[in-house]
Design brief:
Blueprint (H helix, E strand, L loop, with lengths): L10 H17 L5 H15 L6 H18 L7 H15 L15 H13 L1 H20 L11 H20 L30
Helix pairs in contact: 1-4, 2-3, 2-4, 3-4, 3-5, 6-7
């Protein structure tokens, strides 16, 4: 038997998470970008050591995608775009969670909520990266290459540039909006995870 729960966050709740993000950014101000990414990645490793519900697991996959975006040689984010993603990852680099992560079932609940909000904040970045990964996987298979072996290939450049331009245009259109003002979360039912550098393994 499964139970469906709906969580609604009001303005006060969102303000709490905004405050938590601001505190995490302040705490991580001294950290090098590589350290921020490594610390966020360690959260994924910890999550694989405890039992977590599927709805948390699906959101951790999106955190995995955010980490992949800044590490992916083929995607090669520019400095400004990379900083936008890092500014979100700092929350997951902060060990002072609302709910300690070692507590089974609930330990990653606050992280899952923040990932949902982060997905909305980075909607256009994630959409562009998803499309890039789809394209890379399809084209790699056509060429008889394993996607993991592609790296920074010339035949990716035009598609990458096109998606980057689209991402920037959509972000500029929505400039100044925060949580709750975008068009909404990407449907989990339509999200098919293609090849990308991955840390989090479904079990």
């Amino acid at each position: 038997m499964s139970i469906s729960l709906t969580i609604e966050l009001n303005d006060r709740d969102l303000a709490h998470f905004t405050k938590a993000m601001d505190a995490a950014r302040a705490a991580a101000a001294h950290m090098a970008p590589e350290a921020v990414v490594a610390a966020a990645a360690s959260l994924l490793g910890e999550a694989q050591g405890v039992h977590i519900p599927d709805f948390v697991r699906q959101r951790l996959l999106r955190l995995d995608d955010m980490i992949a975006m800044v590490r992916d040689e083929g995607w090669a984010l520019g400095d400004e775009d990379r900083q936008r993603v890092l500014s979100v990852l700092v929350y997951f680099a902060d060990p002072k969670d609302v709910i300690p992560d070692h507590i089974e079932v609930l330990g990653f609940l606050d992280d899952a909520i923040m990932i949902e909000l982060s997905v909305r904040e980075l909607q256009h970045e994630l959409d562009a990266y998803d499309d890039f990964c789809d394209f890379r996987e399809h084209q790699a298979h056509k060429r008889g290459i394993e996607p993991a072996a592609v790296g920074r290939a010339d035949w990716l450049d035009s598609r990458r540039e096109e998606l980057m331009e689209r991402m920037h245009a959509r972000r500029e259109r929505d400039f100044g909006v925060g949580y709750g003002a975008s068009s909404g979360y990407r449907s989990q039912s339509s999200y098919v995870r293609t090849w990308r550098p991955s840390l989090f393994k479904l079990r």
